[in-house]
Design a protein that fits this description.
This protein has about 280 residues and is mainly alpha-helical. Helices cover about 75% and strands about 0% of the residues. Helix 2 packs parallel to helix 5, helix 3 packs across helix 5 and helix 4 packs antiparallel against helix 5. The chain starts with a helix and ends with a helix.
Length: about 280
């Protein structure tokens, strides 16, 4: 539940932010006739994201045994790399409002409804694509807890955006995006490490050292897992969210550290250039 809440809150906030910026700009110029185009673009993007999620899920169910390990490993690593690109691209939000308004004004001036539709569709679809990648990579099924967490995340994101544009909430966007981007970076690094673990299981990437450390508590006498075990109530949460593993292989640890250093370093560098 917590994983889906965090993901949908972050991705939902960005999508709602774009919608509020565009609708606010249309309101100021009196171009209310384009509101329906905005909503059509947003709904089309959401529908496209659901279709994409269904395709990914259907393909995944076709694999079993070693082929499943291979598919999941490749999917997780590919997802983490795509998310790295998107995380770095998120620096755009430091100055994005002015760019969106400028592009929107050009479409309004030239009466280009399709241009407005495309602006909204691709902006929202990017967030939907990120969400799909996270859910597939983290193997989050559409269980009750996951759906509830997602809905609460979207509601919280909408409420925050509404409060900001209504003037009732003051938000330091720099701090907000830095903190949430850091969380996404850790999730993506965990996906990379988990992907390497799956490829260890498939025999594609050697473990070198099977367990660099093993801090998993012993299994309870009744067969249940202690809370801090990677399969326990607390450990499984951190495993899903941050890629925690109580007994990782050497290649898992190396992939996690390299990912954090490389992507984190590029993020800091991009931040400096954006100032």
């Amino acid at each position: 539940m917590a994983e889906s809440f965090i993901i949908l809150f972050r991705e939902g906030f960005e999508a709602f932010l774009i919608l509020f910026i565009v609708l606010g700009a249309l309101k100021k110029t009196g171009s209310f006739q384009y509101n329906r185009v905005v909503f059509a673009g947003a709904l089309s993007a959401v529908l496209g994201s659901f279709i994409l999620a269904a395709i990914f899920r259907a393909v995944k169910l076709e694999f079993e045994g070693p082929a499943e390990y291979l598919f999941e490993g490749i999917t997780m690593i590919t997802t983490s790399l795509l998310l790295a690109f998107m995380i770095l691209w998120l620096v755009r939000f430091k100055t994005n409002a002015g760019q969106i308004k400028s592009e929107l004004q050009g479409h309004v001036n030239n009466n280009r409804s399709f241009g407005i539709f495309s602006l909204i569709f691709f902006s929202v679809f990017r967030e939907g694509l990120e969400t799909v990648l996270f859910f597939i990579g983290l193997d989050l099924s559409a269980g009750t807890d996951v759906v509830l967490g997602a809905l609460l995340g979207l509601i919280a994101a909408f409420g925050l955006c509404y409060g900001i544009f209504a003037g009732t909430v003051k938000l330091n966007f720099r701090i907000f995006f830095n903190v949430t981007t850091l969380v996404l970076l850790l999730i993506a690094a965990g996906l990379m490490a988990h992907g390497v673990h799956e490829l260890n299981e498939a025999g594609v990437i050697p473990s070198v050292i099977e367990h660099v450390w093993d801090i998993n508590p012993k299994v309870n006498t009744d067969g249940s897992y202690p809370a801090l075990h990677e399969k326990g109530s607390i450990g499984s949460f951190f495993q899903a969210l941050l890629g925690y593993n109580g007994n990782p292989s050497l290649t898992e640890v190396i992939s996690y550290v390299i990912y954090i250093l490389v992507i984190g370093g590029l993020w800091i560098n991009f931040e400096k250039k954006a100032r």
